[in-house]
Amino acid sequence: MGKPVDGRKVAIIGCGFVGSATAFTLMQSGLFSEMALVDVDRERAEGEALDISHGMPFASPMSIYAGDYDDVADAAIIVITAGANQQPGETRIDLVNRNVAIFKSILAEIRARECSGILLVVSNPVDVLTYVSLRLSGLPEHRVIGSGTVLDTGRLKHAIGERLGVDSRNVHARILGEHGDSELIAWSSAHVAGIPLEDYFNMRTEGSYEEFRTEMSDLVRNSAYEIIKRKRATYYGIAMAVSRICRAIVRDEKSVLSVSNFMQGEYGIGDVALSTPCIVGKDGVEARMPPSLNYREQAKLKASADTLKQVIAGLDLK
Prior knowledge:
By secondary structure, the chain is α/β, with parallel strands linked by helices. Helices cover 42% and strands 21% of the residues. The chain contains nine helices and 14 strands. It has helices at 17-29, 42-53, 96-112, 126-137, 150-164, 197-204, 209-231, 236-250, 295-313; strands at 6-13, 34-38, 63-66, 75-80, 118-121, 144-146, 171-172, 175-176, 184-185, 191-192, 195-196, 255-264, 270-281, 284-288. The strands form four sheets. The chain has a six-stranded parallel β-sheet with strand order 3-2-1-4-5-6, sandwiched between helices. Strands 7-10-11 form a three-stranded antiparallel β-sheet. Strands 12-13-14 form a three-stranded antiparallel β-sheet. α3 (96-112) runs parallel beside α4 and α5 crosses α7 (209-231). The mean pLDDT is 94.
């Protein structure tokens, strides 16, 4: 057996843009009292830990330090952000071969220490790497989670809120499937404070609802590429999404989040990880909540799963 889990400890593997932004966001959250930063570039991890530590007088007390895999063993949540960055013009799926090789070495270290915390995969392509992590970590399915479409859903809510003049927190619409080009929006169940989205659209503005849906879909699907084109990487939004998932786990909130999880036959989909609404609490994915989808949306979800399965089929997971 590995070390007992410390419920107030988080470890972040990978101190690039996403990892450092995540560390900073989690420091501000007050969820943890200890944070270990692990990176192949030890000096980079030390620098990030020192820099963030200087904010302690303005936040909650926390021990932040650069560590190694022994420091990961008792973490309640192990956040993996390590991997190659997505380049301009490159899809998340294009990253797969480079990042699977990196993950193999990371997961071997985690497995060797019999870690029993929750593994939160953030690196892209997140759905494929969540599947790889499940297969190679030795952890049970409910304790391996991908950040999935939590950020995409946040982007969608923000876009709809801006367009229709309503607080984005009152927009209830979800993106499902791959965190990538084959993702889909569950329009049939979207609403604003209980009012079907189409009805709210007609109340607040003029024009074509179909054109509005296309506009929102294109905006969300292309947002990462637009950010990468302008500043080479995305990291603030995903860092806040990771913090939201961690809060649901640490506080046992039983929140419904669209995380990447291992499908078990829902909609006829299995042996793949992709995003659907799940109840997330102290044990990770505590229940799956298959949303009500119309026939067209179900077909798109299956197509998204097939896209991921084709990538997985070409992996060497030995």
